[in-house]
Amino acid sequence: MTRMNTVKSLYEALYDSPLGEMLLVSNGDALTGVYFSRQKYCPDDDAQRRDGADVAVLNDTKRQLDEYFHEGRHTFTLPLAPEGTPFQQQVWAELCRIPFGETRSYGDLAHALGDVNKSRAVGAANGRNPITIIVPCHRVIGADGTLTGYASGVERKLALLSLEGAALAAVDTAADAKRSAATARTRLSAPANLAFDF
């Protein structure tokens, strides 16, 4: 019996965002990657990908990113096909449930997935998210309300949260570190000294 090769071709396009150039990758039908330049875990430049200038999902992604950065788009309506382990897929699905302008902690996500002891595993899966912004890993913060690592850089994370009206003020009291999960889910206002030109 002859085995059929079912590996799909990958297509790429570049997008010039206000936070730097981004690489968009598709399998022709769905989005498989959105990466900032020099992002941790970004695929190799030598990967075999075709020019995606005529790939509808890549053009739709550019349009929706433009609307996100410049016109206040809150949600994305794109077919997604990120590759990852079953646990990573669960975490990424949970990220898509975090509304625009809100944040969750790693512990909140672990709790939503049914195991409060998996905060570190959630953090690792969050960091491996291959579809930045659209699968909003930037909306995950530390349990004390502070910014934590981001594969595209904490400065970009802060800019994205600011754009969404959820940028964080400094946490400076022990009481703030003990706030409830409900409080961690509230919309946070941007500090007055932050200004990003989108």
What is this structure, in a nutshell?
By secondary structure, the chain is of the alpha/beta class. It is built from 7 helices and 6 strands.
Structure notes:
This protein has 198 residues and is α/β, with parallel strands linked by helices. 30% of the residues lie in helices and 13% in strands. The chain has seven helices and six strands. The chain has helices spanning 56-71, 86-95, 106-112, 119-127, 154-163, 174-177, 181-184, and strands spanning 11-17, 20-26, 31-36, 50-51, 104-105, 140-141. The chain has a four-stranded mixed sheet with strand order 3-2-1-4, with helices on one face. A two-stranded parallel sheet has the order 5-6. β2 (20-26) and β3 form a beta hairpin. The protein is globular, with a radius of gyration of 18 Å.
β-strand number: 6
- Helix % is 25-40%
Query: Structural class of the helix and strand makeup?
Result: alpha/beta
Largest sheet: 4 strands, mixed
Range of strand content = 5-15%
Q: On the 0-100 scale, what is the average pLDDT?
A: 82
Return the string of H and E elements.
EEEEHHEHHEHHH
Poorly predicted runs: 169-196
Spatial gap, N to C terminus: 56 Å
Q: What spatial form do the alpha-carbon principal axes imply?
A: globular
CA gyration radius, whole angstroms? 18 Å
**Strand order in the sheet with the most strands:** 3-2-1-4
Total count of helical runs of at least 4 residues: 7
